[in-house]
Amino acid sequence: MSEKHYKSELIGLFGSPVDENPTVITMEAGFKALGLNYRYCTMEVKPENLGTAVAALKALGFKGTNLTIPHKVAVIPHLDHLSEGAKLIGAVNTIYIKDGETHGENTDGKGFIIALKENGVSIEGKRITILGAGGAARAVAVELALEKAAHITIINVNKERGSTLSGLIREKTGVSSDYISWDHTCAIPPDTSILVQATSVGLFPDPNCPDIAYDTVRPPMVACDVVPNPPETLFIRKAKENGCKTLTGLPMLVNQAGIGFRLWTGREAPVDVMMEATLNEFSKS
Given 63, 72, 110, 126, which residue is catalytic? Predict the structure, then answer.
C-alpha cells in the first residue's frame, strides 16, 4: 500500500494581465492524464515585482513557470542560465529549476517546428516568409533558421524591428534573410515554400486577417498561423480556399506546452489529451 502524501508540485504562469490565459486548462489536463499531483498556478505578476517572483520560485519549491506578456525579455537578467535558443531569440517563455538554479528556455519556436514535422512539412532548403517581427516571429524565425531553411523573408510594418530580425538571422545563424516593408498590401514572394502568419491579427475576438494579397498565397505554399484561438482563423480559411496546405496555431501552442511539461515533470506529455482539452476550451469562446 502506497504512503499517502498531500504535497502538490507547483508550476506557475507569470504575466500581467493573465486573467484570459487558458494555459492552466492545457497543463492540468496533462497532469490528470498521467496521475501527477501537480498544480498549475496562474499568477498576476506586475513588472516591478518580477525579480522577487523569480526568486520566490526557488524559495517555494516550484518546478518552474511559464512567462507571458510583459515578462519574456525582462526576466532574462534574473535567471541563472539561458539556453542557446533563448539567447538567440532574446526572450524566455519557460523557466525550469534544476539543481537549485533557474534555467530559461523558449519553447514557442520549438513547438512550431514539431507541428510542421508532424504534418509532413520539411524545412531544410526551403524559402520561408514570415509576417511580423514580434516575439512569436522571432522565436519561429530563429528555430527555422537552425533547422537549415535556405532563406527567410521578414515582412513587418515597423522597419527597425523587421530589419533587426532579418539581420539577427543572417549574423547569428548564417541563413540568408531580407526585409520587406509592410506599408502596403503585400504580395507574398512567389518562391515561398512556407508562409508563417506570426502577428496577433485574428486572435479572438479579432475577426480580421493580415493585409496581404491573398491571390499570391497559392500552392504549393504551406500557410501557417501562430494564432491558436480561434483554431481556424480567417487567414487560414483564405489560404485553404486557394488550395494551400495549412497549419493552425493550436498544434504549436500545445507542442510548446508539451516541451515545458517534460522539463518540469520528466515525463513525456500526453499531447493528444492536452490538445483535446484546449480545443474544447476554445470552442466555448
Answer: 72
pTM of the entire predicted model: 0.91
Question: What is the CATH code of the structural domain delimited by 9-106+251-282?
Answer: 3.40.50.10860
Is the pLDDT assigned to residue 285 strictly greater than 90?
Answer: no
pLDDT in tens, 168-213: 999 999 999 999 999 999 999 999 999 999 998 998 889 999 999 9
Taking Cα atoms as reference points, which of 126, 159, 136, 147 lies closest to residue 89? 136
Please tell me if the domain spanning 9-106+251-282 has the same topology as the one spanning 110-247.
yes
Distance CA(62)–CA(266), nearest Å, equals 14
Cα–Cα distance, 13 to 213 (Å, whole number): 38
Return the closest-CA partner of residue 77 out of 100, 54, 107, 110. 54
Q: Which cell is 51 given?
A: 525579480
Q: Which amino acid is at 110?
A: K
Q: Reply yes or no on whether 87 is catalytic.
A: no
Coil vs helix vs strand at 95: strand
Please report, for the chain, the start and end positions of each structural domain, with discontinuous segments joined by +. Answer: 9-106+251-282, 110-247
